[in-house]
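Hi support team,

I submitted a single chain yesterday and got back a structure, but I'm not sure I'm reading the token output correctly. Could someone confirm the output below corresponds to the sequence I sent? I've pasted both exactly as they appear in my results page.

Thanks,
R.
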Amino acid sequence: MLVAVEPSGDALGASLAAALRERLGPTTRFIGVGGSAMAREGIESPFNPSRMAVVGAFNAIAAWPEVRARARQTAALAAREHPDVAVLIDAWGFNLRVAARLREVDPTVPLVKYVAPQVWATRPGRARTLARRVDRLLTIHSFDAPYFEREGLPTTFVGNPALQRDFSSADPAALRQRVGLAPDSPLLLVLPGSREGEVRRLMGPFGDAAAAVVRARPDVTVAIAAAPAVAARIKALARAWARPPIVIEGDRDRLAAMRAATVALACSGTVTTELALAKCPMVVAYKLGPFTHLAARLLLRTRYITLLNVAAGHFVAPERIQGACRGDILARDVLAVLITPAAHYNQISQQSAALEIMRGGITDPIGAAADAVVEVLKAQPRASRGT
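Hi R., thanks for writing in. Yes, this is the structure output for that exact sequence:
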């Protein structure tokens, strides 16, 4: 059983299913919850999981009745099908509830959590909670393990699949030619996020920053990458910018734009790792709703929100959060990289060094995760559970 309710988890679940099928044979059967990627691997979800991908404490409270109902539905599927192992992928709130329900319907099924809650950043008590709910943790960050091992939870660092992002099909020269840019023309790439709330809160300051950059450097071209789920919203808001940007759509062009860009202004998230892999220096920003931000301030335990900075232990990339996420501040940071070649190349070098720390010597993260799941299966075969 594989359970994933977020787009990133759906991608992980699909890759993990394929890797497990290679190791366990073509007759391996999968059940669970997932999106379109997992469906292509033969995992038929009993419900559309998109509503479970909740961000923010107050949104989570509003969604709680549906979370409980869907968790019961997931457990009912397990009760009917008797899986040999259940892998709960990311999605802390939902999968914690699912773990509790699975324990009720079958206390013997091994529960594996894939991707740890970020206890290094906030709410360290989650490590103890997770240790009581699951049997094994697969973590994508090497610095996660000590928090959970202290609570007695067997933890395996399997590496971060995002670090394997393939840029081989990305052609920055072709992209520049298609949008009418010379090979040496400076390009600012704006990435305002993939969620409605992120786009709503960031497009204003990002637009102000882009305008200030262009005033200081009229030779700069601005492009904006629009994720499919929010593309229409991004296009509508971008039309109000002082100089409407080139809009980049589609995954291949987005990756090509990362490689083509001189500097990026990005919403905090997985995209920052992708930019580092593309050797593009960046300025990172984020804004929360006022009440969610207040809660976050009370809970946050780290100076950093960008994984590159967490891994390096210092600010490899500037982070401008909440009140500091202003057009003038963002523009200043962007111009510092644009104007000074030494700053540009130094940031690229530091980003690459941070990526190596994040890799931790793991060359095949999905394969390592599949091997760990197979190890769990071998340790507790189906026959020993009497099913």
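A quick pointer for reading it: The chain has two domains: 2-159+362-385, 172-359. Let us know if anything else looks off.

Best,
Support desk
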